[in-house]
């Protein structure tokens, strides 16, 4: 048994144990905190499986954003779950066992874990992504080149989903639905905590600087628009939590945020349209410069910034929507 | 078989825990947490298919020979952010349901709908 | 170089020991405040010593600088988190365990 297998199995065991505990807990605040732990362990597993970009995103999203959103949702509803009656447990268990059994049966056809000659690895596209991309695009991080260039249209679709989700949350909870329901300033303000305030104020510029670094360094190392957007949003969320929502909304007014949500998407689309006007196909960055590789660099940078803007604006807006809502009891 | 497929099986177990929570539990927020568990299982499954033994992260450099496959990583990277966006929509719906019905338990909501 | 290797192994082992003792403390200490103390140890002593041990075996100075930056941020955030947790618990009136009380 190699060291890799040992670490892999222990991390997976921790994951399954955490999942079991989460599924049994009826106190939902505890469940939310444990699911943050779950995300951290998942991020470690992603690093082990060579997916550094994904690990980065999971750590920022799972611990930073989704925990805060879950806690915000819980603060607005009940944080204690009713006992699941016995008659409800059986169908769920039956479905889970059946589906799990089917999956295990079907997994016999899967290639061995980590095998280098599985259909996925032997496909000619693998060579295109890993080696041809060095000549086509010339950036070392192939995840970025696949994300922003080869599968740019796909990523545009994903960004559209994020955009739609942001609009949906605004429609459900935003001030458009309840114009009177404006700000609320009570327990979310942590103004008494002086140490926390000093340290947060000290770290804030570094968080934002780090987000920018992640955005612009995505060509060479792990990073890119999605990660940068989420880190930006996490910074704003921290600011809002520690210094109060009023202050956070003075720093980034809601109108600016609402304008930034479609701006990123339009920038992305705009790059594609400019490519078409210059005689290429949609999102074919070669046309942006006389040298195709330079064009690709510029296109990827613009597209990643567009992703970062929309993701950061949507996540921050979602947080403000939850935090501004008054609890009804 | 065990030596080569154990990762998949453990991940299936993870997914099934999530599926069980989604189906059996009546609390809407708990269902969302269960959905997240299921989702993470699927993410890890995708990534583990792209992994190559002795490989390294797909960032090309001169002193690395084998790389894991970048495509699953790209798909999952975007899926994580989309996942948190959809979680936010789900939470928003749960909050609105709570404001209308005063409960987030599925059965109580259904009961209030059926009693005139 | 062998001296550096031995020193780094010693530091890593000490860090691992602190992490394990933090975990044990988290499970066995009787009340919230002592458990926060145990969790704080993993953050500061555990992670700090492990990072120091890694620092002694970094191949290039770029990685070393990154490790130092991580150490700096950990030194700032870890104690803050422990302090905020304990302070919040005190403000909410979580009682302190005394000799002879039951565990909670």
UniProtKB/TrEMBL annotation, chain A:
Membrane topology: Multi-pass membrane protein
Pfam families assigned: MbhD, MbhE, MnhB
Residue intervals passing through the bilayer: 6-25, 32-49, 55-77, 89-107, 159-177, 198-218, 224-243, 255-278, 298-323
Residue ranges annotated for the Na+/H+ antiporter MnhB subunit-related protein domain, each copy included: 195-316
Keyword Chloroplast tagged: no
Residues in MrpA C-terminal/MbhD domain copies: 14-77
Annotated MrpA C-terminal/MbhE domain residues: 88-174
Keywords: Cell membrane, Membrane, Transmembrane, Transmembrane helix
Location in the cell: Cell membrane
InterPro entries for this protein: CPA3_antiporter_subunitB (IPR050622), MnhB (IPR007182), MrpA_C/MbhD (IPR025383), MrpA_C/MbhE (IPR046806), Nuo/plastoQ_OxRdtase_6_NuoJ (IPR042106)
Entry annotated with the keyword Transcription regulation: no
Family indicated by similarity: Belongs to the CPA3 antiporters (TC 2.A.63) subunit B family.
Protein name, as recorded: DUF4040 domain-containing protein
Organism: Actinophytocola gossypii
TrEMBL record, chain B:
Keywords, alphabetical: Cell membrane, Membrane, Transmembrane, Transmembrane helix
Domain of life: Bacteria
Entries under Pfam families matching the protein: Oxidored_q2
Signal peptide stretch: none
Subcellular location: Cell membrane
Bilayer disposition of the protein: Multi-pass membrane protein
Primary localization: membrane
Membrane spanning residue stretches: 6-23, 32-50, 70-95
UniProt similarity note: Belongs to the CPA3 antiporters (TC 2.A.63) subunit C family.
This protein's name: Cation:proton antiporter subunit C
Organism: Actinophytocola gossypii
UniProtKB/TrEMBL annotation, chain C:
Keyword annotations of the record: Membrane, Transmembrane, Transmembrane helix
Superkingdom to which the source organism belongs: Bacteria
Statement: the UniProt record of this protein carries the keyword ATP-binding: no
Pfam family, one: PhaG_MnhG_YufB
Any coiled-coil regions, as ranges: none
Transmembrane regions: 6-29, 36-56, 68-89
Protein family per UniProt: Belongs to the CPA3 antiporters (TC 2.A.63) subunit G family.
Protein name: Monovalent cation/H(+) antiporter subunit G
């Amino acid at each position: 048994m190699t060291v890799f297998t040992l670490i892999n199995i222990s991390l997976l065991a921790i994951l399954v144990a955490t999942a079991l505990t989460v599924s049994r807990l009826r106190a939902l605040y505890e469940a939310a905190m444990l699911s943050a732990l779950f995300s951290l362990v998942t991020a470690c597993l992603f690093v082990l499986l060579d997916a550094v970009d994904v690990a980065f995103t999971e750590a920022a999203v799972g611990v930073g954003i989704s925990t805060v959103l879950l806690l915000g949702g819980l603060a607005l509803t009940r944080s204690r779950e009713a006992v699941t009656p016995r008659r409800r447990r059986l169908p769920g268990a039956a479905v889970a066992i059946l589906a799990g059994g089917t999956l295990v049966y079907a997994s016999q056809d899967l290639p061995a874990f980590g095998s280098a000659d599985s259909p996925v690895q032997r496909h000619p596209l693998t060579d295109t992504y890993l080696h041809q991309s060095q000549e086509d695009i010339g950036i070392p991080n192939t995840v970025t080149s696949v994300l922003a260039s080869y599968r740019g249209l796909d990523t545009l679709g994903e960004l559209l989903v994020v955009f739609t989700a942001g609009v949906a949350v605004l429609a459900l909870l935003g001030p458009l639905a309840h114009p009177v329901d404006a700000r609320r300033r009570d327990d979310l303000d942590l103004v008494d905590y002086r140490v926390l305030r000093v340290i947060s104020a000290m770290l804030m510029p570094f968080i934002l600087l780090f987000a920018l670094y992640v955005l612009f360094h995505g060509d060479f190392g792990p990073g890119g628009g999605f990660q940068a957007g989420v880190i930006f949003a996490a910074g704003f969320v921290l600011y809002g939590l520690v210094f109060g929502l009023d202050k956070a909304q003075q720093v980034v007014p809601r109108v600016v945020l609402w304008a930034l949500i479609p701006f990123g998407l339009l920038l992305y689309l705009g790059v594609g349209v400019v490519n078409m006007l210059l005689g290429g196909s949609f999102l074919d960055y070669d046309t942006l410069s006389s040298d195709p590789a330079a064009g690709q660099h510029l296109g990827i940078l613009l597209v990643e910034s567009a992703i970062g803007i929309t993701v950061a604006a949507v996540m921050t807006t979602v947080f403000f929507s939850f935090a501004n809502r008054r609890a009804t009891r | 078989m065990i030596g080569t497929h154990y990762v998949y099986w453990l991940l299936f177990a993870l997914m099934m825990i999530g599926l069980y929570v989604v189906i059996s539990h009546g609390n809407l927020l708990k269902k969302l947490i269960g959905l997240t568990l299921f989702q993470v299982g699927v993410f890890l499954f995708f990534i583990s298919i792209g992994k190559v033994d002795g490989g390294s992260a797909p960032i090309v450099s001169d002193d690395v020979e084998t790389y894991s496959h970048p495509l699953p990583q790209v798909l999952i990277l975007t899926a994580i952010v989309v996942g948190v966006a959809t979680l936010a929509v789900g939470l928003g719906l749960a909050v609105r349901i709570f404001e209308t019905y005063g409960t987030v338990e599925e059965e109580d909501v259904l009961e209030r709908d059926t009693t005139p | 170089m062998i001296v550096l290797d031995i020193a780094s192994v010693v530091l890593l082992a000490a860090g691992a020991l602190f992490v394990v003792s933090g975990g044990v403390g988290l499970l066995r200490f009787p009340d919230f405040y002592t458990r926060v103390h145990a969790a704080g140890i993993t953050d500061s002593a555990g992670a700090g010593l492990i990072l120091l041990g890694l620092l002694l075996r970094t191949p290039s100075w770029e990685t070393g600088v990154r490790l130092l930056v991580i150490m700096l941020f950990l030194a700032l955030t870890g104690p803050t988190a422990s302090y905020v947790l304990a302070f919040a618990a005190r403000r909410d009136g979580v009682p302190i365990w005394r000799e002879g009380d039951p565990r909670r």
